[in-house]
Amino acid sequence: MASTLLSHEVSDLCIGKPPLRCLSVATATVADAITALKSSDEPFLTVWSCNHDDEKTDGNDKCECLGKICMADVICYLSKFDNNVLSLSSAFDASVSVLIPKSRSLVVHVHSSCKLIEAIDLIIQGAQNLIVPIQTRSSITKRRQQQKLLINRNVVVSLSATTATTHKNGLQFCWITQEDIIRFLLDSISVFSPLPSLPISDLGVINSTQHTILAVDYYSSAASAVSAVSRAILDNVSVAVVDKGCDQEEDSRMALIGEISPMTLACCDETAAAAVATLSAGDLMTYIDGSGPPESLVGVVRNRLEDKGMVGLISLIDSLSSFSGSSSDDESSPAGRMRTSSSYGRSVSSAARMARKSVAIVCNRKSSLMAVMIQAIAHRVSYVWVVDEDGCLIGMVTFVDIFKLFREFLDGDN
User: Fold this and answer.
1) DSSP characters for 4-40?
2) What are phi and psi of 142, to 5 degrees?
3) Considering the entire predicted model, what is its pTM?
4) Residues 54-80 pLDDT 10s
5) Distance CA 193, CA 172 (A)
6) Which pLDDT score is estimated for 349?
7) How far is residue 280 from each of residues 125, 217, 218, 221, measured CA to CA in Å?
């Protein structure tokens, strides 16, 4: 039974997957990335080495996905540019490559014939997404003709950069996520019996090391959490917002209040960088939670930006806000060049909106592995926080921890 399950190829998980929308690292800027993200109903976009809109490009150039980006990457990046309008403008003009994590690749190319067990091993080694070619070459000429019709050379942002899905020789790609594989394994969960019914504390999957758990104090500045959020993007987890009030000992336990999730930030727009620069971690949770920030917090952000003289971020907020009342934005401003919405959020799919909550998804030590897996999938996250009876943080269980457990089980079964 186990051998049959693991003999499946990743192509079996690609059925119905849409082709990836991509940006070219050769031409796209941070401003292009923001526009592309706002026009997409998915939280992530891929960045590629190829640029097939360039007529001089050799058709034999290798198409390689260099990484993935989301609005959380943009917000963390822009939060560093708060001094003046010019520095913020240069941030928007920078290559999209500045948004791609440099420490390790989160995406890995695989053949469509890659075995499921090989895919699990790649995820255990650090991959978040597996890039798989979609075997179709039909209607390539028609697609390219339609794409060229969309290109308006009189605007700064090339529409082809935000809609490209087809690569050389008509190839398209999709990706497999950790969640896709977990869902697939759930259909044959009896293969791993008795593991699914056992408490997570008995299985050793609770990760509680300080190196793994990313946490910030509720009252600390949100700006101090930027590095933790960037790390959370790399690890496909979240940043716990805690209060050290469970006891009075020196190494006190931490009460889990909520979280600052990259997926929640991914549902915001770039103005959230101003909130990161001015609010506490606790207030930032409120700011990014739900459909939009409370007006009271918007006013607080504005006042603190003025107090700190952060004219660049003030200009960004004013530019986006004024766009709702006029279509004649200053083309030299970052917001004017991007032609973005005036809202404090962006349009995303219903699946992505499910993740836009600052309430932490929790379980306890006695929760069964099966319950934790279903809980994570139901909330579209790749982790579940583990708390004790007092609500104090113990650790977390991630999809990677579960993959490791299943892999060890299969190795021992052979």
Assistant:
1) HHHT-BGGGG-TTPPPPPEEETTT-BHHHHHHHHHT-
2) -65, -40
3) 0.84
4) 555 555 567 899 999 999 999 999 988
5) 38
6) 47
7) 35, 9, 7, 4
